[in-house]
Amino acid sequence: MPAPQPAWGPPPGYGPYPGMPPRKNNGPIVALVLGGVVILGLGAIGVFAATLSSKVKDTGYSNYTTYSPTYANTTTTTTTTTTTAATRTSSTRTSSTQQTPAGPKAIYKLADHPIFATGIGANDLDSCPLPQMDYNPAGEQRFLAAALPCIEKAWQPALKAANLPYQPAELQVFTGSTQTPCGSRQANSTAMFCRGVIYWPGGFYANEGGTTVRHPGVYLGQLSHEYGHHIQWLTGMMRAADQAQYDVGGFDTPKGLELNRRLELQATCLGGMTLAPFSHKNVVPMEVVNTGLSDSGKRGDYDRRPDHGSAPNNERWVMHGHKQNDIKACNTWAASSGDVS
Fold this sequence. Notes:
Blueprint: E1 32-35, E2 38-39, H1 50-58, H2 137-161, E3 170-174, E4 177-180, E5 183-186, E6 192-194, E7 197-201, H3 216-235, H4 237-247, H5 254-275, H6 286-297, H7 311-324
Parallel strand pairs: 3-7
Antiparallel strand pairs: 1-2, 4-5, 6-7
């Protein structure tokens, strides 16, 4: 019996959205980091990104009912002010209504998303000091928590330049099981992305099916793939893909599965772009970057349902994104069906 092959996680957890009627086919709606839930094979989620956890709630990204973030609120701390009835006197009020600040908005498009005309890529990094990897949940959390701010630093200016919303991704490393807005997740499965959070199974990638070589590059590559789902979520492409799957009859239809492969392979391509800044200026050893690229290129559907793309196509897309580092290189929505099989 052949050894199990590494795979991506379940489809991203982007829905459901308020007001949508029931799907014709109730396929899994979970991600890349995986996907909608972005639970792709690269997905990671750390156990403690407490400095970022409150941000998801405060900026209106808990679901897609509100999309009015601004770039001003991007620090890793949040201050909440509660006003009681006793303090709301006529002398302190400035207005009877509060206007939502204008700011960048997500755009719900796929192949014709305007981001592809911007030419943006992941910005170069001057440094990214990463701790030595210890292959246990606490050690993995330290490593991922150090890498994530570097990824944010590479992508935040690009999204701002494209006039698209930005907020940091949250990392949650967990053991046992955890509950997410996209459903429960076990630590004996791959990482998953869901609504701004990367859920990372502590210890999983150190012992994945007995086939994965213990290497920090595997973790950096998986984290980059999951962050690719975060970009899809921020830009609106994840919600647009969810709507498109609904329109063709559901996730588990042939057209729905092809749409999910396009979503996942785009996250793989964006993961390759994310690794580009790490390969410049010796920010991290090239062995780490190359291992991340190689691991991403070995993941795919295998004997699973065809929702993440073949391993050869994962390899092509991750390398294409890495070499080009241009967002239009990751327009999987406009690719031929063969390129996303």
